[in-house]
């Protein structure tokens, strides 16, 4: 029963992303690499992730900029957005630079769960990055599969997410 709300949430997020993607594509050609996206002026890392600009993500991450910034619509992080869109090399960059693997959005969704349900072509470069992400999450004690979103929200409210002693 809980799968249906998650599927609905993903569909709504995809629809919202497509709307953003359309808006972004209208301005994308006018921007130079490194310029702040006018659609995401206060959240440059999320803008870079939403535009699939891996080099810009790498540059911002190296400077520690926006690793855990939050999207105003749903409180998602760059890592959640990257995982949701199967950008596993980007997720790996974010983890390697210290992004919070335990962060969840306002619905209780965490990036780690997407690693197990990803539809990337097995054996591809993206899949190899996904497998490295899984290893890095497990090495930090991240539960795979993670608790469902409702459980994460309840655990967070009770002060138990991330779990006590969790490695960040």
TrEMBL record:
Q: Which UniProt keywords apply?
A: ANK repeat
Against SUPFAM superfamilies, the record matches this protein to: Ankyrin repeat
| Stretches for region Disordered | 145-168
Q: Which InterPro entries match?
A: Ankyrin_rpt, Ankyrin_rpt-contain_sf
Note the segments forming the ANK repeats: 74-106
* Protein name as catalogued: Uncharacterized protein
Report the source organism: Acetobacter nitrogenifigens DSM 23921 = NBRC 105050
């Amino acid at each position: 029963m809980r799968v249906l709300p998650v599927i609905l949430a993903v569909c709504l997020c995809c629809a919202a992303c497509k709307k953003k993607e359309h808006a972004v594509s209208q301005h994308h050609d006018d921007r130079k690499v490194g310029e702040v996206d006018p659609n995401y002026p206060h959240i440059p890392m999320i803008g870079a992730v939403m535009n699939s600009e891996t080099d810009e993500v790498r540059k911002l991450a190296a400077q520690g900029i926006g690793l855990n910034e939050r999207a105003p619509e749903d409180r998602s992080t760059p890592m959640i957005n990257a995982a949701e869109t199967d950008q596993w090399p980007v997720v790996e960059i974010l983890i390697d630079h210290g992004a919070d693997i335990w962060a969840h959005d306002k619905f209780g969704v965490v990036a780690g769960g997407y690693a197990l349900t990803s539809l990337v072509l097995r054996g591809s470069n993206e899949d190899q990055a996904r497998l490295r992400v899984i290893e890095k999450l497990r090495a930090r004690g991240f539960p795979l599969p993670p608790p469902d979103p409702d459980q994460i929200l309840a655990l967070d409210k009770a002060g138990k997410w991330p779990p006590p002693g969790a490695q960040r």
